[in-house]
Amino acid sequence: MPRCPEGLFWSQNREQPTVPDLGPRPLQRLPPTLVLATLSAAFGSAFQYGYNIAVVNTPHQVFKSFYNETYFERHGTFMDGKALLLLWSCTVSMFPLGGLLGSLVVGLLVDRCGRKGTLLINNIFAILPAILMGVSKVAQAFELIIFSRVLVGVCAGISYSALPMYLGELAPKNLRGTLGTMTEVFVIIGVLLAQIFSLQAVLGNATGWPVLLALTGVPALIQLLSLPFFPESPRYTLIQRGDEETARQALGRLRGRAADVEAEMEDMRAEEREERAAGRLSVLSLFTFRALRWQLITILALMAGQQLSGINAINYYADTIYVSAGVEPAHSQYITVGAGIVNIVMTIISAVTVERLGRRPLLLAGYGICGFACLVLTLALLFQSTVPELSYLSVICIFAYISGHSIGPSPVPSVVRMEIFLQSSRPAALTVDGAVHWLTNFIVGLVFPSVQEAIGAYSFLVFAGLCLLTAVYTYVVIPETKGRTFVEINHIFAKRNGVEIPEIKEEVTEVGPHIPSVPAKETAL
Question: What is the distance between the alpha carbons of residues 210 and 495, in angstroms, rounded to a whole number?
Fold first, then answer.
C-alpha cells in the first residue's frame, strides 16, 4: 500500500489534543470581533457575487434600449435584432468569464497577501467598475458596462474562493459550518436586493439604471474601511508567516476565552507539523497526488452537482411559468422577488441548522427535494395545456425547488470544500474548485437555451437524474465533517485514498522562536 508523506495525516497511534466540543454557542455570546469580522468580510465580498448576477436580469430591456440609442447616436441607424442580442449576450457572459479569471489567481493571492489582504485588494475590482458603470450613460459608452462586467466577475471569482477560506479559518470548529454558509447567505442577500432595486418603480428604469449598477461599489467601500480593523486568519499567521504571538493575539480577540485559545493553538501547531512534513502543493501536483484523490473528486462532484442540478433552468423558465399561471408579465417581477425571499429564508435556516444536523443530511435533503420538484415540474409542464390548473403546480414546484437548493446544494458545498483540505493544499484546491464553478456556469449559460429548445420540458428529467447522482455520491463518499478538526477529516479520507498512515513521533517543544513552515516549497510528488 502506498505511503502518505509523513505528517500529512494524523496517526492513529498519536495522542491528539483534547478539545471539548461545547456545541454551537448562541450568537449573542460570541466575541464581537468574530461576528463583526464575518459581517464585514461577507457583506463586502459575497454580496458582490449575488448582486451582479441578478442586477441585469429584470431591467434588461432598459439596458438594450441604451445600447441601441448609443449605437444610433454614433451611426445614425439602429442595430438589428441579432446584433443587439449578441451584444447583450456578451454583456451577460462577461461576468462568469471574469469569475473564471479571478479563480485562477486566487491561490497565488491568498498565499502571498493573506486571506484578509486578498479580500482588501479585491475591492479594487468592485469600486473601479462601479465608477465606470455609473458614468457610462453620461459618456454614451456601453463598452464601459461590458468591460466593467469582466472586472466585477474577477471580484466575484476571487471572493468566491477567498471568503470561505477566511471565514472557515476564523471560526471555531463547532461554528465552522455556520460561518461557512455566510458566503451563500450574503450571495442571496445580494440577489434579493438586486431584484428589489431593479424593479421598474425603484431603479430599473431609464433614469435610475446608472445608480443601480454603481451601487455595487458601496459594500466594497464599507469593507475597505472596516476590515483592516479585524485580524488576519490565525492559521495563516501561524503556519505560513510563523508569527505565533500575533496568531495568539488574533485568537484571543476571536475566541474571548483563554481555554479556547490554548486548545486551538495546540490544534494549529499539530496542523503546522503536518504542513511542514508534507510541503506545499501546487495546482498541477494536486491532480497527481494520491493522498488527496478523493478530496479532489469530491469538490468537483459537489461543484458540478450544484451548477448542473437545474438552478439555471429554473431561473430561465420562471417568468414563462408565472405568466402561464395567469400572472401579468408586468407583475412577474414581484413574484421573482417573492422567490428571492424564500431563497434567503431557507438559506438562513440552513446556516442555523448546519451545526446541529450536519452537512450530509442537508445535502441529501436538498438534492432529494430538487430532484422530486424537477420530476413533478416536467409532468406539470407537459400536461398543463390539457389541464390548465397544473400551471399552479408548476409555480409550487419552482418554489419547492428553490427551497431545496437553498437548504443544501447552494450553501453547504462552500463549507465542505474548505474543510476537506489542509492548509498546504487549500489554496490549490479552491483554485480548481472555483475554476470548475465558473466554467460550468459559463457553459450552462451558453448551452442550456439550445438544449431547452431541443427537448423542452424534458430537460428537467436530466436535472432530476443529476440530482440523484450527486445525492448518491454524497451518501457513499462524503463523510460528516461536523465538529471535526481539519486533520481528523483528512485522516478519514486517507483510508478511502488507500494510503498508509505512518506513525508520527511527537516533537519536543522547545522554548525559542517559532519556526514557520516554508510556503514556497512544493512537495516532490
Answer: 55
112-130, pLDDT tens digit by residue? Answer: 899 999 999 999 999 999 9
pLDDT at 510 over 50: no
Residue reference for cell 471535526 = 484
For 382, residues 6+ apart whose C-beta sits below 8 A from its C-beta are 457
Beta carbons of 390 and 384 less than 8 angstroms apart: yes
* DSSP state string for 377-411: HHHHHHHTTTSTTHHHHHHHHHHHHHHHHHHTTTT
Match 498541477 to its residue by C-alpha cell.
284
- How is residue 191 written as a grid cell? 440577489
- What amino acid is encoded at 146 in this protein? I
Check: CB of residue 140 under 8 Å from CB of residue 70: yes
Between 323 and 37, the more confident residue is 37
3-state SS, residue 280: strand
The hierarchical CATH code for the domain 31-259 is: 1.20.1250.20
Give 281's pLDDT tier (boundaries 50, 70, 90): low
SS3 499: coil
Half-sphere CA count of 487, side-chain side, radius 13 A: 23
DSSP class of 500: B
Query: What is the Cα–Cα distance from 367 to 466, expressed in whole angstroms?
Result: 9
Cα–Cα distance list, 48 to 10, 124, 149, 443 (Å): 38, 12, 11, 21
Query: 484 CB contacts (<8 Å, ≥6 apart)?
Result: 173, 419, 492
Q: What is the pTM of this model?
A: 0.81
The superfamily CATH assigns to domain 282-499 is: MFS general substrate transporter like domains (1.20.1250.20)
List, by residue range, all CATH 1.20.1250.20 domains of the chain.
Answer: 31-259, 282-499
Helix spans in 227-282 (H): 234-235, 244-255, 258-278
Inter-residue contact 152 to 98 (CB < 8 Å) = yes
State the Cα–Cα distance between residues 402 and 409, nearest whole angstrom.
10
Q: Picking from 69-73, 261-265, 398-402, which range would have the lowest pLDDT averaged per residue?
A: 261-265
Distance CA 369, CA 347 (A): 14
**Average pLDDT value for residue range 348-370:** 93
Q: How far apart are the first and last CA of the chain?
A: 16
Alpha helices in 279-425 (DSSP H): 283-288, 293-308, 311-324, 332-357, 359-383, 390-407, 412-419
pLDDT tens for residues 129-152?
A: 999 999 999 999 999 999 999 999
